[in-house]
Amino acid sequence: MSDILKQCRDQIDAIDEQLLSLVNARAALAREIGELKGEGPIYRPEREAQVLRRLLEQNKGPLSEEAVTAIFRSVMSNCRALERELSVAYLGPQGTFSEEAANKQFGGLSAPKPCISIDEVFRMVESGNADYAVVPVENSTEGAVGRTLDLLTTTSLHICGEITLPIHHCLLRQKDATGEIRRIYSHAQSLGQCHEWLNLNLGGIERVSTGSNAQAAELAARDPFAVAIAGKRAAEIFDLSILAENIEDDPRNVTRFLVLAQHDVAPSGQDKTSLLLATKNVPGAVFNLLAPLAEHGVDMTEFGSRPSKLGIWEYVFFVDIKGHHQDPHVAKALHELEQRASLLKILGSYPVAVI
């Protein structure tokens, strides 16, 4: 047995040396490409999406698709860092699901920029103090994140990517706390996602909304009579005990995040375009507004409304469609749609989330 074990380990050592050589060869080519490109974005979401899709098609296991994407995102992240570190703004502090989403998309964060609010996340990129922003836009249980939608109506930033992140909540508390629980800290969205579990297990206890789940964990770490709803990473950061895991009401709970930047993104082959629309408040206006999408065979994947804040009972519409705005059939539909809309803003065309 010891001889077989040694043979296996020797083979692993040999493979590791090959991997090291190949990864360094890839990094050298990536750096050369960066020098040839000159000025411009070093993070190309469309190119990375194409690479990941190709690798997933070739993956025969035993590594899962999630493992393959995580490994190669990390490789690409470290190759990019040879050109320049990317600064990424997100809703902080450390331990939020926004940070987890940013780490997932960028293969780790070399220059993280945690912010105290979604407004600040937008401002960091708009002012040039960060390269990219990661913001939550909707949850499968609680729906749209209103503040993100409101800021998208006025920002000059482009959506250049999306991230889907499974959300699993834990109930956290000080490790030495033994008294009664008087308060539950968490972000409003998380309180909503765990509403029924809380009613069943902690009914009647005060629920306190916080700016983020990490902030909730930080407050619970200082309050012996409180618990927090947050993720496992927050428990590690703030040295809290996990009283219960997976307390979300829907086990398929997923949050979608957007990646924002000052630049647009080229087509990747599997893209999505997000639009902001408005029309006059007359009978049949919305039907007539969206007709060009059907006429040109453009698939609408999402439609939602939001008060415009320009007048009482006036609304803007957020629409997601399949395809890139440069795709010929999409471009034709958007041209006709522009003639009918009182407002059309292309928020961005970007690769569909990979895993």
Automatic annotation (TrEMBL):
Recorded GO MF terms: chorismate mutase activity; prephenate dehydratase activity
All copies of domain Prephenate dehydratase, residue ranges: 87-262
Compartments in which it is found: Cytoplasm
Entry keyword annotation includes Metal-binding: no
Cellular component terms per the entry's GO annotation: cytoplasm
Pathway linked to the protein: Amino-acid biosynthesis; L-phenylalanine biosynthesis; phenylpyruvate from prephenate: step 1/1; Metabolic intermediate biosynthesis; prephenate biosynthesis; prephenate from chorismate: step 1/1
Stretches that traverse the bilayer: none
Residue stretches making up the Chorismate mutase domain: 1-87
Site feature location: Essential for prephenate dehydratase activity: T255
Pfam families assigned to the protein according to its UniProt record, in alphabetical order: ACT (PF01842), CM_2 (PF01817), PDT (PF00800)
Domain spans labelled ACT: 274-351
Enzymatic reactions: chorismate = prephenate; prephenate + H(+) = 3-phenylpyruvate + CO2 + H2O
SMART domains in the record: CM_2 (SM00830)
UniProt keywords, alphabetically: Amino-acid biosynthesis, Aromatic amino acid biosynthesis, Cytoplasm, Isomerase, Lyase, Multifunctional enzyme, Phenylalanine biosynthesis
Protein's GO biological process: chorismate metabolic process; L-phenylalanine biosynthetic process
EC number: 4.2.1.51, 5.4.99.5
Superkingdom, natural source: Bacteria
Main location: cytoplasm
Task performed by this protein: Catalyzes the Claisen rearrangement of chorismate to prephenate and the decarboxylation/dehydration of prephenate to phenylpyruvate.
The protein, known as: Bifunctional chorismate mutase/prephenate dehydratase
Organism whose genome encodes this protein: Methylobacillus rhizosphaerae
Taxon lineage: Bacteria, Pseudomonadati, Pseudomonadota, Betaproteobacteria, Nitrosomonadales
